[in-house]
Amino acid sequence: MIRRWTSPLEPGLATREAYGRTLAELGEENPRIVVLDADLSKSTYTSLFGKKFKDRFFDVGIAEANMCSMAAGLAAGGFIPFASSFASFLMCKGYEQLRVCCAYMEFNVNFVGSHGGITLGEDGPSQQSIEDVALACSLPGFTVAVPADEVSTAALVRAAAEHYGPVYIRVGRPRAPKIYAAGERFSFGRAKTLSYGRDVTVVANGLMVGVACEAAELAERRGIDVRVIDCHTAKPLDEATIEIAAAETGAIVVAEEHLSRPGLGSLVAQAVTHRHPVPMEFVGMPDVFAESGTPEELLRVYGLTAEHILGAIDRVLTRKVTGAAVVAH
Amino acid sequence: MASENIDVAAIATRARNLRRLVIEMLAAAASGHPGGSLSAADIIACLYFGVMRHRPQEPFWVDRDRLVLSKGHACPVFYAALAEAGYITHDLLTSLRRLGSPLQGHPDRRKLGLVEASTGSLGIGLSMGIGMAIAARLRGSPCRTYVMLGDGECEEGQIWEAAMYAPHIKLGNLCAIIDFNRLQLDARVDEITDLQPLADKWRAFNWHVLEIDGHDYDQILDAFAKAERVTERPTVIIAATVKGKGVSYMENQLKYHGTVPDKPEDVLKALAELSGGRS
Questions:
Q1: B107: cis peptide before it, omega within 30°?
Q2: Catalytic residue check, A64
Q3: Which one, of A273, A66, A51, lies nearest residue B161 by Cα?
Q4: Residue A327 in this model has a pLDDT that exceeds 50
Q5: Strand, coil or helix: what is A214?
Q6: Which pLDDT does position A326 carry in this prediction?
Q7: pLDDT of res. B3
């Protein structure tokens, strides 16, 4: 198997920290960047921007709806806002403001939801976000990205600053393994194929990209050749890359730290069903809220480890239609 | 008085024109919200023809004053003001609420670029106005941002998130106006959630608060002038108004929040009253 990641994966920055560092750089480069936060700026790392650019940083307090609409007003006034909070609060308390003030108005506003998924950990399900990506994807005109590591986060945050239109980016709390070498280029809607295996495809985003890489290595030891795709942009979805993977590997597993239904799993399934139906398996949060625990414990209990992906690979392979079977039909 | 330099009689004429246009538009559309348009007509006339700095020949002049019509259902009076000010033709007004018209049922900036902020979901406009006022300050622009709220709208929690924040950052270039007509869709506002003491609430949030008769041009113009002189904090003008003002059978009638007269004789009666100097 030819793969693009180093093995074993080295730990890198948390994607939220990569976000904050990138914002601070962008503030230097572009005076139109303004940043808003809702009393979580140390957790989201927007404080790195706030310390450098006091006049362009607005901590609105614990008032997410006001923050999201204010961001729209700043966009109307010609600025490029980035507004952040925990993904759960931003997307749930700000949903209508994202809908009316940003999606419907076609304003150029960027939202970054931090502490996405269950790896926020010990604070429990009120803070964990398992539906933010689905909510963001449901808004017409939104671009939605879930980067896997520090390099892709920095690149996608920069892409958001340059893209005209509303953007949602989800970042995570724990340190993320390094997937990409510095300088790797990213653009919204263009997935990254990390290994060109021929037996089965694992499509993943965010934290689960690293987990998918681990699973691919485990599978390789069993002689299974895995294609790994980092589908960092959930919307617009890279349907072409998925279609080719479906055609060439004949089976797909989708892995995400989010509800699979609705989530990246649903989106990929829709694309696959439309373009090139193949058997699929889904590794994601079941239809439940999680609980308090360490990130590692939660990933294990809720089925989001490399072993779980490996299990899904085994299951999907048993259902894979061989070339001969297609002919027999 | 601020109104000394402004032709108050001309504003009164404009206000009457706005009211007539509102009735004509709504009759043509056979749907819409007359009550809140008529209650706001005098304030809107003062803003467009005496207070706001704007250039109909240069609609997107970067330093224009902004109006966010947070009570978006009152858009007929806003569209009427755009026509009277020369931004759009009077002919266009009869396309209100028709498929493909720039004059959507609630203001939609995708369809009509003159709309500063699409509204229609209540409670959101003040926050957007804060963003616009900050943007003006960061740009060094002297432009002011006006946000018109409904009194019923003040039941939305986001209004109070915004109310807490604007004085904190000393947004002297922001002015909110509450069209206090005392009626909302289901009943009188004080029967649903009594807002009183409303002025005290805004004072407690550190706003510069003015209470006026929203149909008295001198009081309206004077309030806007006072607001502009207070530069260290935002102003809220609580304007007591009459819902359906100017049309006898609509005044203070719950029904005319969102109902249009369906009989031609009722439309004619309304237009006659608005032409007859009763306002």
A1: no
A2: yes
A3: A66
A4: no
A5: helix
A6: 43
A7: 52
Residue A50 pLDDT class (50, 70, 90 cuts): very high
- For A154-169, what is the mean pLDDT? 98
SS3 B248: coil
A233 membership: H or E segment, kind and range: strand A233-235
pTM over 0.80: yes
Q: How many residues does chain B have?
A: 279
Judge whether A165 is closer than 8 Å to chain B, CB to CB. no
Rounded to a whole number of angstroms, the distance from the CA of B15 to the nearest CA of chain A is 29
The rounded distance, in Å, linking the Cα atoms of A169 and A183 is 20
pLDDT of residue B6: 87
| Mean pLDDT of the residues in chain A | 96
In this complex, which of B108, B120, B130 lies closest to A73 when CB atoms are compared?
Answer: B130
Does the pLDDT value for residue A49 go beyond 90?
A: yes
Strand partners, A226: A200
**String of DSSP letters for A101-144:** IIIITT---EEEEES-BSTT-TT-TTT-BSSHHHHHHTSTT-EE
Would the CB atoms of A63 and B118 count as touching at under 8 Å? no
Alpha carbons A14 and A35: distance in angstroms, whole number: 20
Given this model, what pLDDT does residue A322 score? 67
State yes or no: cis peptide before A8, omega within 30 of 0.
yes
Tell me the C-alpha distance between A222 and A288, whole Å. 33
Among A144, A120, A164, smallest CA distance to A293 is for A120
Q: Residues in chain B with pLDDT < 50? A: 1, 278-279
End-to-end CA distance of chain A: 32
Task: Give yes or no for A75 touching B (CB within 8 A).
Answer: yes
